[in-house]
Amino acid sequence: MSDGLSAEFTRADVRAAGVALSRGGRTLVRGLNFAAAPGEALAITGPNGSGKTTLLRAVAGFIRPDAGEIHVEPASDVKIAWLGHAEGLKPAETVRDALTFHAALQGASPELIEPVMERMAVAHLARRACGTLSAGQRRRTALARLALSNAGLWILDEPTAPLDAVSRARLGALIADYRAAGGVVIATTHAALDWPDQTGLDLSDAAREARSA
Amino acid sequence: MSAALALFSRELKLAWAGGGGPAGPAAFNLAALALAPLAIGPDGDTLAAAGPGVIAFAALLATLQPAERLFGEDAADGTLELYALSGAGLATAVLMKTLAFTLAVFWPIAPIAFIAALAYGLEAGPALILSLALLLAAPGLALIAAFAGALAAGLKRAGLLIALIAAPLQVPLLVFAAGAGRAAAEGTGLEGANLMMAAAGSLAALALAPLGAAAALRARLE
Fold first, then answer.
1. What is the pLDDT of residues A193-210, one digit of tens each?
2. Nearest chain B Cα to A77, which residue?
3. How many domains does chain B fold into?
4. Out of A123, A184, B54, B210, which could bridge B94 as a Cys pair, Cβ 3.0 to 4.6 Å?
5. Do B77 and A60 touch (CB under 8 A)?
6. Which of B10, B78, B85 is closest, CB to CB, to A101?
């Protein structure tokens, strides 16, 4: 295993068939099919308001689809790591304390915390309170949390949005290592994610179908 | 370190340091206790008779004061999603968070009750019983406030909603905590029963409130 990634996870298989999603009483997408096996990355694209984030929340199990089914197998064992628009960092907590907590919560080895911080370039911020970080630094801290999450499926909502070019490359390398270890990544994006062999899922068609129905 | 223990120690640290820690509710508690005698009047016997009730009521108000931020911040900053997906589960997270919060933020309730009881003219014995009763009732009061806080998490004017939901549910704890102090002051010999009922109320809240709060928070995630 390469440094700076906790990879003691159950491999996940994601399958979705005929999914329809709505938000606030308005149907967003209909008839959506996709699948992701261990090592695969699914990049979800589509215009604003087309249901990308809603789809991610459905895969994570926060909301139930109106129709169709989303399976994350094996349902009893797979852990899911989530990175939304809000990073889930506490303003008063230091970066190291936050990562130490998440490592303990997810059963990752505490010895991995330092290599992971090095890898995501937050080691020099270890003693800074999360409330004093810039948007990019917050995101890098959240990505370090993902690397410690021991989850078989990473769900990322616009992971690159606040990142500069160097950090994007770091994220790309992290994703590559995670997929090599058998992890599944499902991410929404506006920017082109230059991750090799990613599967694309454009919501435009499913959204058009929902509007016409 | 187990997930539950990790949650408890993190929330303990955050509650201690964040948002003024125990200072806010304690100030609320003290202000209510300082103002009540001005309204009741200077008669010593009346004050001593009213003491247990006023002190228990002030403690109840103190538990409502920070209920809005208990889950409101977690809902806003994305922590809720992370807790929901953690292996520990939302109910465990709610339980650990509320217990840590009770310990870090509501610990002054008991010493304040003891000192206030003496100031209201109760003897040391009944003051100690009242303080003990509130120590037993505080986790229950906090858990019910947390349940209300979870139902109102992320809403506008959550404070009003929290008071309306939590106050009726907190009534039994208020009655038995104040009852223990009054029984001790009047020498009716019923303080033991009242203490046990206060403890029972807290245990019932311990069993039910985390599940209710977790269900409310899961609905909030939709």
1. 678 778 888 888 777 777
2. B87
3. 1
4. B210
5. no
6. B10
